[in-house]
Amino acid sequence: DGELAVHPRVAYLALNYVDRFLSKGQLPFERKPWAPRLLAISCLSIAAKMQRVDAISMDYIQRDEEFMFDAVTIQRMERVVLGALEWRARSVTPLAFLGFFLSACFPPPRHLALLDAVKERAVDLLLRAQPEVKMAEFSPSVVAASALLAAAGEIAVAHLPAFQAAVAACPFLRECGEVMAAVCGVVGVSLGPAASAETPVTVLGHGHYRSASSESDRTVGSAANVADAKKRCMGPPSQSQWG
């Protein structure tokens, strides 16, 4: 089918790196037409290493292209990216909260097949919503809760009241859910009456903020539209090349 199967955690984290790098304004699209593609490949490689998944073949990733970046070029670009990110590669993403929320909101006896379906749908919604800039206004825990709420509303309707009660008091959850519903084209799920007691979700939700003081607890929407290059780049990139 021409598509590369990449673990959702790797794909989400790679887009996070791309966005953070581009926010530094260090990539000259017009002067270096090959740079966006090299950036995407390098960020994917870094993300795979951070998530400790099986090594991704850079040759396989580039198999359908007219030219390929060599390993040295990719490794040097990885260092450029990490330098721009001040080596802060351990970003927290909404995907890290899915398992916890599912355990908290769907107590035993659990239907594993149903939970897997809810989680899979939530992951799909998270990946589809990530390019939306407005999603960056919400903490990863709130984004994860919104995705699971929407997924449960589609797949696990019988369990929805319990989930709604668990997350109803989570700050900014309603606003995040509205953004996700608009971006992904799903039907918004009513949260119902606000819960008075603290829940695991509300405790995490209290850490929500809208400042850029800590990138590690935010999810960053994709701002890149990576273009394909049509010429070979063999020269390894360095910080001076962007000038």
UniProtKB/TrEMBL annotation:
**Protein name stated in the entry:** Cyclin N-terminal domain-containing protein
Q: Where does the Cyclin N-terminal domain start and stop, copy by copy?
A: 4-88
Report the superkingdom from the record.
Eukaryota
Instruction: Enumerate the Gene Ontology biological process terms.
Output: cell division
What UniProt keywords apply to this chain's record, in alphabetical order? Answer: Cell cycle, Cell division, Cyclin
Q: Which family does the UniProt entry place this protein in? A: Belongs to the cyclin family. Cyclin D subfamily.
The species is: Aegilops tauschii subsp. strangulata
- Spell out the InterPro entries in the cross-references: Cyclin, Cyclin-like_sf, Cyclin_N
Q: Which Pfam families match?
A: Cyclin_N
PANTHER family in the record = CYCLINS
